[in-house]
Amino acid sequence: MYFFKTISENVKSIHADFKKNSKTKRMVLCALFACIAAVLQAAGGFLPVLGYFISPFATAPILFCSMFSLPLGLMAYFLTNLLLLILQPSELIVFPFTTGLLGVGTGVAFYFFKKRISIIVAGAAFLTVGIMILLNVVKFPLLGPTISTSFSFLTTGSIFLFSCIYNWIWIDIVLILFKRLNKTLTR
Question: pTM of the prediction?
């Protein structure tokens, strides 16, 4: 069945190939991914309407870096937060708890799990926890004024369902890109 397929073999092979690079090259790639993520996330503040459609793509660089190397993925996540502090401080409330956390969480899931369903659920759990922290602890109306900032099982369940679908889309996009990358590297 589709959701119970093992999908992390390509990731493991690219992860092993990535470790063969020098430490300097890995660090530069990490910094590059962090810069790309910061620019994509800051687009919401620089381009008022179009930027909000661009900023969700800040997940991709963090996710790729986390899939290449978990410590470098975490480093890229924190570096992106520091860059956002300079570029667009208003995005610091959103990125660490949503976009960036989804990238790191899904990268961690690729590292520890093999089945598609477990990777989807683990990444979605990270995103759900981040959104719930913003809604219930920080009381930031992330989803607009219609969603209450008080805890509700219906709201939490709806957010988790959305997170599963959203993470599923990201996983399929990343796997397509990784297959193309793997073909390019093996030529």
Answer: 0.89
DSSP tag of 95: T
Sign of CA dihedral 160, 166, 170, 175: positive
Q: What does the block give as tokens for 132?
A: 């719930």
Give yes or no for a contact between 163 and 124, defined as CB atoms under 8 angstroms apart: yes
**Beta carbons within 10 angstroms of residue 161's beta carbon:** 12
Q: How far is CA 87 from CA 34, 41, 46, 76, 153, in A?
A: 13, 10, 10, 16, 36
| Residue showing tokens 């962090």 | 34
| SS3 state of residue 17 | helix
Angle between helices 9-19 and 59-68 (to 10 degrees): 70
> Distance (Å, rounded) from C-alpha 84 to C-alpha 95?
9
From the CA atom positions of the chain, what is the Rg in Å?
17
Residue 59: other Cβ atoms inside 10 A: 29
Q: pLDDT tens digit string along 93-108?
A: 899 999 999 999 999 9
User: Using CA atoms, how far apart are residues 104 and 82, in angstroms rounded to an integer?
Assistant: 16
